[in-house]
Every structure is written in structure tokens, then in C-alpha cells.
Design goal:
- With 568 residues, the chain is an alpha/beta fold.
- It folds into three domains: 95 residues, Peptidase S8 propeptide/proteinase inhibitor I9 (Alpha-Beta Plaits), CATH 3.30.70; 307 residues, Rossmann fold, CATH 3.40.50.200; 93 residues, Immunoglobulin-like (Sandwich), CATH 2.60.40.
- The protein has a seven-stranded parallel β-sheet, with helices on both faces. Strands 2-3-1-4 form a four-stranded antiparallel β-sheet, sandwiched between helices. It has a four-stranded antiparallel β-sheet with strand order 20-19-22-23, with no helix packed on it.
- Strand 2 and strand 3 form a beta hairpin.
- Helix 9 packs parallel to helix 12 and helix 10 runs parallel beside helix 11.
- The longest helix has 27 residues.
- It starts with 23 loop residues before the first helix and ends with a strand.
- The N terminus is likely disordered.
Length: 568
């Protein structure tokens, strides 16, 4: 890179350095050594450049004696039974150990293998790839982009913030109360009986942090695994996972920072930290299979992959390996909860993988003050025009760190707040399948059935989930066709313009400070052309002109949970 080039034309001589004088034999020996060294370095460089990462997919799974009850945790069997799923299917059968040995013998490194994909990930050179493709057990070999790039979007804004003690206390209270913490507590809904897996960069300090003492005291951490180092110790790597965990189940200054403090946990380190090579997506898939095997009900993944790795067209819910893995996990009965991303005010803008997956509950962020989109939260829709994010939670939260706690920004913290809510919701309605719960959570959003690509269906609401109380009308519509004329002196012609004006009449009894009105224009294909948020402070009629929308366009308006629509 040019930026690393250093040109020093006036570099001083080292006049005091000793000078060695060589005779002819010394010189020839030295030259010979240099030639050998250069040849060796060139050879190693060629091998290194040729060595790449590959997915090796197998043709079949010959194991006919799979014992699901011996392989899976009892909770995994229970989940399958509850969701009317078979105890096992093709995806659950292990990869043939014979095939793995053959692949390992014909590659430099066998990095991981996946039963869901019936594949192994290896590092190999071109000669080895040729031999791998010739193996009778191999279906195909796919190259993986070898780039190792700077940390992807999800960490960039997730940093501690300076705030006063009063602000932190209010933030801590609001991050759970706005979702209905008091109502959930009154019903005894604390996530008890729900098993939650967390995939993250690490959980530094969490093994001794007082925020998790209530979980440690009942042995609520069932298993841990570091998929980076291949060991059980996950209490390293950074405070991000510690913060995420605290937003699901922590207790900070004697106040709950998450809703599911009686849930049980599986903690997985899948991220390396200051670099995000593709191995982290492989780790994510391996962790999802591990979580499935060990009986997880919910996975919280405050991770995502965007422009450092992919093009926007690939955010279609079916292209990236991690997205495909997330969809398989959902087919196994797991509820996958994932942060939408922090690209809303960057160049990328849209959600990343695996939040683009159809079966992933993608969580956007809103401001602590109100239910308006927080600037960094990534936008939907997906490339194939599906709604994302699905729902929202607070995008700024009080979190535990390696030592102590602080306020922090990021959809990484909205996601675990939502995951904690989901655990309580599933405890309340345990008979729901994961996808039935998914839909019920969408319907519990504060805006439902209204949606847009910044807020999804709004902030999760316990009252809406548990009570489904009808919403009282908060406004009325009136519609008028307007014709305006104008005179152009240059052409000496009169022109007229016809448009429809919608007046929204707010009921004075519904007026409240900082109340937000949302409206959107939905095209006949079901996509949104435009959407807006207005802060309502007075009961005077709001006018919405429509001049550029085609016949069949639907105007949808939501205020204080009540929605009404009209078609042009």
C-alpha cells in the first residue's frame, strides 16, 4: 500500500558501525546462501499464495445407526417433540468420519465440519483441491474468499458512553419498562425453563461480574465453548458478549437490565475480535449446530456481516453461508434473534447477514426517549423486498462490562433486550412453535399492523402480546380532491394540477407529549415507496398531499397504536 511506503532520501550513514571485509571464498559462500534462501522464500510464497480456504461438500451420509436420544440433549429432544418435528432427519446425521479422514489427508488443515451442510472447511492448495475433487465421496469443492478484513459493522458504534448517574438510572429502567417489564413480572414471566444460546466475541469478566451472580448461584450457565480456540473458556475476547448477556438477564445496581433473568444459558465465542475472516461465519454455523444439539430454544446473535464482505444484492436471505445456516437452525425449532446492524447512517445503510434471513427475527433500534428510529440502526427491506427489521427495542442500554457497567449504543443491545422478551413470551405460551412465536412477537409490536423499513412493526409490547386489547381510535381521516391552477407568462398558458389531500384529525383526548405519528405509502406490489414520522404536539389537522403516487397506492397512518388506511 502507498500509505505504508517510507522514502528517506537523507537517511544518515551508520559511520560507527563495524565494516566486515570478505575474501573471495566468503563472498561465494554468502552468495550461494542468499540464492538458496531466495529460492526457499519464493517457494514458500508461492505455496502460501496458492493455499486457500474451501468448502468440501460430500455426496451422502452413510451412517445408518444414528441414535438421536444418545446424541442430543434431552431438551433438544423435548423441543422437537413439542414442535412436532421428527427426532432427527438428514441434517442431523453426522458427517462421515471416514470422509473427514480422507479430506484431512488431502488438505493442509481441516478447520471445521458441518452436519447441516454435510461439508468440511479446509485450507488447501490447487494440487490438493484437484485430488479432493477426485475423491469418490466428494460432491463439489467451493472456494471461500480468503480476505481478512477490518471488523465488520456491528462493533463500530458499540462503545460505552459518558452519562450522568441519573441518566444511567433512567436508561436502565426504561430499557425493560418500555416493553412491559412490570406486567411480565406480575405474571411471573422471567424466562424460566427457556434455554438461550448467545454467540459473541467473548464474555470478559462475566464469570465474576456481580450482574450475573444470580445466574451463577443456580448454575444457570449450562455449557460454554470457544469456537475460535476450541476450548471451554469463553471468559475472554472482550466485553461485548458480557454486555449482550446483561441485556438479556443481568442485574445492575439491584435493577434488572434484562427480562429473562431465570433463563438458562449456553455461551459461545464465535468472533475473533479485531479481525473478521470468514472463519467467523463458519464458527457461527458450528455454534448453531452445537446450540441445537444442547437444547437451546433461542439464539441471540448480536453479529452481522456487510460491505467488508458482501454486496447489497447478496442480502437476499439465501446467499451467504451464515444466513443459510440460520434458516436451517429455524427449521430445527430454534428462534433466532439477530441485531439488524449499525449501518443506518453509514454508506451501506441496509441490514446485514444473517439478519436478512426469512426465518430470523431481526431487531432494529429506537431512541431511549421515544419510539423513533435511532440514527445508526440499519434499514430494510431485504434485496428481495421482505420486511426488515421485524421489530425493535431500545438501541441504547445500560450494560455490564468486564468491570463495572456503562451506557452503550448499538443494535447489539436491542437484540438481547428483544431476546429476553421472547424468552418471557415463550414461557407464557409454551405450546407455540418457534415460527408461531415469531409471528406473535411481530403482532405484539407497538405499531402492528403498520410497518416500515426503519421500525418494522415497532417496539415489543407485553400488553399486546398477553392481552391483545383492542386499540381505541386516535384520529380520523378526511380526503379532498384539490385542483390548483397557475399562469406561465413565458408560454402564456394556464396549467392545472390535480392532487388528493388527506387531512388527519387527531382526537384531543389522544394527544400526549412526544406522541409520534407514522405514515407510509405502499405501492400495489406491497412495498413501501415512502414513510415518515411526525411529532404531534397540537390537535390541529395534519395535511398529507399526494401528487406522485399511482392508482392503487395505499396510505397507511399509525398513531398511538391505532392504524387506518386509504387507497388512492
Amino acid at each position: 500500500m502507498v500509505g505504508n511506503l517510507s522514502i528517506r532520501p537523507n537517511c544518515p550513514r551508520f559511520d560507527n558501525a563495524p565494516i566486515r571485509y570478505m575474501n573471495y571464498k566468503d563472498k561465494t559462500r554468502t552468495i550461494g546462501k542468499c540464492i538458496c534462501l531466495m529460492f526457499l522464500l519464493c517457494s514458500l510464497s508461492t505455496i502460501a499464495q496458492d493455499d486457500r480456504k474451501y468448502w468440501v461438500f460430500f455426496k451422502d451420509k452413510p451412517d445408518k445407526n444414528f441414535d438421536a436420544r444418545a446424541y442430543f440433549d434431552a431438551k433438544a429432544i423435548e423441543r422437537r417433540t413439542m414442535h412436532h418435528l421428527p427426532l432427527f432427519d438428514w441434517y442431523d446425521l453426522p458427517v462421515s468420519p471416514v470422509y473427514l479422514k480422507q479430506v484431512e489427508a488431502n488438505s493442509n488443515v481441516l478447520k471445521m465440519h458441518s452436519r447441516w451442510f454435510n461439508a468440511a472447511v479446509v485450507r488447501a492448495n490447487s494440487d490438493q483441491v484437484y485430488r479432493l475433487e477426485k475423491l469418490a465421496c466428494v460432491d463439489r469443492v467451493e472456494a471461500v474468499d480468503p480476505m481478512e478484513l477490518a471488523l465488520a459493522s456491528m462493533e463500530s458504534l458499540e462503545q460505552e458512553l459518558q452519562s450522568s448517574a441519573t441518566e444511567e438510572e433512567e436508561l436502565l429502567s426504561r430499557q425493560t419498562s418500555r416493553m412491559g417489564a412490570e406486567l411480565l413480572a406480575s405474571k411471573g414471566l422471567t424466562g424460566k425453563g427457556i434455554r438461550i444460546a448467545i454467540f459473541d466475541v467473548g464474555f470478559s469478566g462475566a464469570e465474576i461480574h456481580p450482574a450475573f451472580q444470580h445466574i451463577r448461584s443456580r448454575n444457570g450457565v449450562l455449557k460454554t465453548w470457544d469456537f475460535v480456540k476450541k476450548e471451554e473458556n469463553v471468559w475472554k475476547g472482550g466485553w461485548h458478549g458480557t454486555a449482550v448477556w446483561s441485556c438479556i438477564a443481568g442485574k445492575i445496581n439491584n435493577n434488572w437490565s434484562g427480562l429473562a433473568h431465570d433463563a438458562d444459558f449456553l455461551l459461545a465465542r464465535t468472533e475473533i475480535g479485531n479481525k473478521e475472516p470468514f472463519s467467523e461465519e463458519e464458527n457461527w454455523i458450528a455454534a448453531a449446530e452445537w446450540a441445537d444439539k444442547n437444547g437451546a430454544d433461542i439464539v441471540n446473535s448480536s453479529l452481522g456481516y456487510t460491505d467488508k464482505r458482501y454486496f447489497p444484492r447478496q442480502m437476499d436471505g439465501k446467499t451467504t453461508y451464515i444466513t443459510r445456516g440460520a434458516n436451517i437452525a429455524a427449521r430445527k425449532g430454534l428462534l433466532i434473534v439477530n441485531a439488524a446492524g449499525n449501518e443506518g447512517d453509514g454508506d451501506w445503510k441496509i441490514i446485514g447477514a444473517p439478519a436478512d434471513a426469512d426465518s430470523v427475527l431481526s431487531i432494529g433500534g429506537v431512541e431511549p426517549c421515544c419510539d423513533s428510529h435511532i440514527s445508526f440502526s440499519s434499514f430494510g427491506p431485504t434485496r428481495d423486498m421482505r420486511l426488515k427489521p421485524n421489530v425493535c427495542a431500545q438501541g441504547r442500554a445500560m450494560c455490564a462490562k468486564s468491570i463495572g457497567e456503562s451506557a452503550a449504543d448499538g443494535t447489539s443491545f436491542a437484540s438481547p433486550l428483544a431476546a429476553g422478551f421472547a424468552a418471557c413470551a415463550w414461557q407464557a405460551k409454551r405450546s407455540l412453535t418457534n415460527m408461531e412465536l415469531f409471528q406473535a412477537l411481530e403482532k405484539s409490536g407497538s405499531l402492528y399492523p403498520y410497518f416500515d423499513y426503519a421500525h418494522g412493526y415497532g417496539v415489543l409490547s407485553a400488553d399486546r402480546f398477553l392481552n391483545a386489547t383492542p386499540v381505541e381510535p386516535s384520529f380520523t381521516f378526511s380526503k379532498a380532491d384539490i385542483k390548483e391552477g397557475s399562469y406561465n407568462s413565458e408560454t402564456e398558458m394556464e396549467t392545472s394540477e390535480n392532487y388528493t389531500e388527506i387531512s388527519i384529525n387527531i382526537k384531543e383526548s389522544s394527544l400526549a407529549d412526544s406522541s409520534l405519528l407514522y405514515y407510509s405509502f405502499m405501492n400495489p406490489q406491497g412495498g413501501l415507496d415512502e414513510y415518515y414520522v411526525i411529532k404531534v404536539t397540537q390537535p390541529i389537522p395534519l395535511s398529507i398531499p399526494s401528487t406522485s403516487h399511482s392508482t392503487g397506492t395505499i396510505l397507511r397512518v399509525s398513531y398511538k397504536g391505532y392504524m387506518q388506511e386509504t387507497t388512492f
